[in-house]
Amino acid sequence: MTNPSSPPPSEEQTRPEETTETAYVVDDDYVRRISELLEAGRTGEVERIIALLHSADLADLLERLHPEDRATVVGIIRPLLRLDGEVLTYLNEDVRAEIFKQLTPQEIAAALAGLDSDDALTLIEDLEEDEREEILAALPVRRRLLVEEGLTFPEYSAGRLMQREYIAVPMFWTVGKTIDYLRAADDLPDDFFLIFTVDPRHRPVGSVPLSRILRSRRSVKIADLVQDEIRPIHATTDQEEVAYMFRQYGLVSAPVVDDAGRLIGVITIDDVVDVIDEEAEDDLFKLGGISEDDLYRAVLDTSRSRLPWLAINMVTAIVAASVVALFESTIASVVALAVLMPIVAGMGGNAGTQALTVAVRAIAMRELSSSNAWRVLSKELLVGIVNGSLLAAAAALIAGLWFGDPTIGLVIGAAMIINIGLASFFGALVPLGLRKIGVDPAVASAVFLTTLTDTIGFFALLGLATWILL
Amino acid sequence: MTNPSSPPPSEEQTRPEETTETAYVVDDDYVRRISELLEAGRTGEVERIIALLHSADLADLLERLHPEDRATVVGIIRPLLRLDGEVLTYLNEDVRAEIFKQLTPQEIAAALAGLDSDDALTLIEDLEEDEREEILAALPVRRRLLVEEGLTFPEYSAGRLMQREYIAVPMFWTVGKTIDYLRAADDLPDDFFLIFTVDPRHRPVGSVPLSRILRSRRSVKIADLVQDEIRPIHATTDQEEVAYMFRQYGLVSAPVVDDAGRLIGVITIDDVVDVIDEEAEDDLFKLGGISEDDLYRAVLDTSRSRLPWLAINMVTAIVAASVVALFESTIASVVALAVLMPIVAGMGGNAGTQALTVAVRAIAMRELSSSNAWRVLSKELLVGIVNGSLLAAAAALIAGLWFGDPTIGLVIGAAMIINIGLASFFGALVPLGLRKIGVDPAVASAVFLTTLTDTIGFFALLGLATWILL
After folding, report:
1. Which CATH superfamily is B12-160 part of?
2. Does A376 touch chain B if contact means CB atoms closer than 8 Å?
3. How is chain B split into domains, by residue range?
4. pTM for this structure?
């Protein structure tokens, strides 16, 4: 079913470079060139060059530049910002906050005025109360009301994601009447994928992809084009659910309803793409012990946001270490154990992390929950025992030869089977348990798990050693 | 700019439950109910219940069920599959592979026949050569040619992602002529967001959102509605680039071109959502030491896929342990060091992982590269020194009291500043270095880093101890 009017192949020079080139406009050379021009004080040239940039690329440039240069460039694009605030929507929030400091509330308001209501909302929702008020006060009344209304919805809810601009028509309209309405109306969103049909109480009852309208004769009833059942999203639904529904059902656009089920806005897939990105980044960061992206943060802010996690880890590390303290006398007589300790503990940590990663992702994707938990847990235990045994054999051999004592090999081997076996099991159990008690599995799992694997590892190795070697 | 015909608010009972409820159709209870019915052999009821499911939910159910039950359900939906293979597109590939074993090539071909070319392609690209041939042979000729052509593009390329069905019209057409063409044509994609304009050589020169066509009079020239410059994607472009471009420029749909720059297909944002998901999952898994999602794998397959990483880790663990071996005599005389070793090494690992996580994500998001590398590296070093000093102070105090010896406190404190300071620095340097030599930063960073932090930690602690305490 390819396009019918495909022309015959023609011999022509290829142009992959050209197309791949378009992928990164703001590459390292570009950034360097700009910084050099700025150092040379040739702002006029910089202005001419960046005038050609897409807002998203301009945002990248601002992020990449050294803070001083960034301030200079913001100075250059000041007048441009008043006309089009789109670039602000593409900025990392730390960089944006820094740039906002440089601008007056009036300038920011001017920049917001041209944006879709949902973008405007995103830009100011993180601001300080008073700063936000100043900007809102400077906004056109109608726009201000929309944004303020948006702020009444909980953070990370569908109400914050949705766009207030949408098209809704009654079921009984015809294609012709709809087209005439669209041609006549002047206050419509720039681009939209589908229109909603509503009942007399303005509750969404169906949706019609524009393509179906375009392909039908004017006399056709909208009711006959309506797409299978729609899935209204309540304004207070968490954005994670929203992303899930879009993914699950391959939606491009979904109606948002209020408590009475009335259509109040629309969420489009491009908003959801950002959410999916955020959620994935979130899990990645939490597993890595990062509260949020701090790439553009100053040293002290970064230290502050990372310290709590490290402090918790130190407490747990001391707990594990105190197990070692129980066996000081054993270590004193068989120092080789001090050499083998990190191997046993570390391998348990790695095996556990593997199981943990799969479990955390599966929970986030709603593929792992109580209905299949036991199947997964028992599997992980077996996987741990299998790999544990294989690695234990190798470790036993190496340690035996290293310290010229087969029983030391025996001890580390046995310890590794125990630790790696249990590590995989706990790797899946910890996140499941945390979820059960209402804690985000991604955020705390790693600490608990490493404490467990260290403790079990030390206990197994040193305990067995005390029992067998002494 | 909300919808003009908004009706007055009406008092009505709220219905959030209803809307949230729609979010998970296949929850634990649902799965349990089905399994129970299956055990009771009441397949007729099961058939009636699952007949109501959306394909995506049916796929979830199949994934969640115990393999035996799954086989039974596949048996039940067999006839349904011939008519609509959509459910197959939603399945995890391991589960799909298992289900394919149960179906005949003819049945699979029948299921594929109704799908879009890109979906059909995804379903068979991972199959064994011969298995794939059998299915292709059973496909309708025209469909088979499209799929076979798709297979000629490299894996994970735009050519594999794209849909062959698209709409292209010449620049000089009017809105009226275009609408007439769309109404008359019978071999168009079901739903589409925009149409492309092409030059006489069939190269894409612009795109027009359907909403603009709908809102324009028949006499308007398509050329006047064309959207700002389009970004053709070459068929061999990697899907990661494709996802980047969609994200960067907020595209909903982009033209795919061949070497001669001719339009050969279109990629829509819903395909890209899956790619974004995959890429994010990929980084998460690699950092966790997982080659791919193995939730649905059998024990031995899972063990096999996880073992290599663990083996590498054991080698590196032994390298780090051998550092400890250098100081056996020191440990023999100050056993407390064996207790403190894991604390120093572990904290370095955690601090390093924080820096590593931010760096890997930033590299993937194209926010970190040589142009800002040094700024980030020097910042990480400072962050490490700041947090290292704070934690070192605490550790020194605790260790000093614990072992009643201030010099031991001094030693661990100094060791922690050194290790945490360097750990943060290397946490950012390792992924940057791997990328420079063309290795995926996500996949190998963790091994290198932990080896480094362990080695440095042991060396610092035991070295200082030997120097100061003995």
Report:
1. MgtE N-terminal domain-like (1.25.60.10)
2. yes
3. 12-160, 168-268, 299-469
4. 0.83
- CB of A187 within 8 Å of any CB in chain B? yes
Q: Is A103 helix (H, G, I), strand (E, B) or coil?
A: coil
In this prediction, residue B235 carries a pLDDT of 94
Amino acid in the structure at residue A16: P
- CB spacing of A371 vs B280 below 8 angstroms: no
Q: What angle do CA B249, B254, B257 make, to 5 degrees?
A: 130
Interface test with chain B among A193, A257, A466, by most B beta carbons within 10 Å: A193
Calculate ∠ Cα A49-A50-A53, nearest 5°.
Answer: 115
CB-based contact, B357 to chain A, within 8 Å: yes
Asked if the C-beta of A389 comes within 8 angstroms of chain B's C-beta atoms, the answer is no
Element (H, E) at A299: helix A299-326
Q: Which two tokens stand for residue A267?
A: 């969420």
Could you count the other beta carbons within 10 Å of the beta carbon of residue B298?
15
Residue B116 near chain A (CB below 8 Å): no
Interchain proximity B201–A246, CB inside 8 Å = no
Is 0.85 exceeded by the ipTM?
no
Residue whose tokens read 């597109």: B89
Alpha-carbon span B7 to A461, nearest angstrom:
73
At residue A19 the predicted structure's pLDDT band, cuts being 50, 70 and 90, is very low
Rounded to the nearest angstrom, the minimum Cα separation between A237 and chain B is: 7
For residues B67 and A230, the model is more confident at: B67
Q: Please write the tens of the pLDDT for every residue from B380-437.
A: 999 999 999 999 999 999 999 999 999 999 999 999 999 999 999 999 999 999 999 9
What gap in Å lies between CA B413 and CA B407, rounded to an integer? 10
pLDDT tens readout for residues B160-188:
999 888 889 998 999 999 989 988 887 77
B234 touches chain A (CB under 8 A): yes
Which whole-number Å values give the CA distances from A5 to B165, B281, B405, in the listed order?
12, 40, 86
- The 3-state secondary structure of B372-435, one letter per residue: HHHHHHHHHHHHHHHHHHHHHHHHHHHHHHHCCCHHHHHHHHHHHHHHHHHHHHHHHHHHHHHH
Inter-chain touch A276–B276, beta carbons under 8 Å: yes
Chain A residue numbers with beta carbons less than 8 Å from the beta carbon of B24 are 366
Give the residue on A whose Cα is nearest the Cα of B326. Answer: A339
Closest Cα in chain A, distance from residue B379 (Å): 6
- Sheet of A253-257: strand order equals A233-234, A253-257, A263-268
Q: Kindly identify which residue of chain A lies nearest to residue B399, measuring between CA atoms.
A: A318
Instruction: Decide if B36 contacts A371 (C-beta within 8 A).
Output: no
Mean pLDDT, residues B278-300 taken together: 88
Nearest chain B Cα to A185, which residue? B215
pLDDT at B370 over 80: yes
CATH architecture of A299-469: Orthogonal Bundle (1.10)
Question: Would the CB atoms of A353 and B288 count as touching at under 8 Å?
Answer: yes
Query: How is domain B168-268 classified at the CATH fold level?
Result: CBS-domain (3.10.580)
Query: Each residue of B223-235: pLDDT tens digit?
Result: 899 876 788 999 9
Task: State residue B237's pLDDT score.
Answer: 94
Residues B243 and B275: beta-carbon distance below 8 Å: yes
Interatomic CA distance for residues A47 and A118, integer angstroms: 29
The helix-helix angle for A336-364 and B336-364 (nearest 10°) equals 30
Cβ contact A259:B16 at 8 Å: yes
B152 touches chain A (CB under 8 A): no
Question: Which pLDDT belongs to residue B22?
Answer: 45
Please tell me if residue A356 touches chain B, with a CB cutoff of 8 Å.
yes
Greatest CA separation for chain B: 95
Contact list, A192 vs chain B (CB under 8 Å): 211
Cβ-defined contact of A295 to B367 (cutoff 8 Å): yes
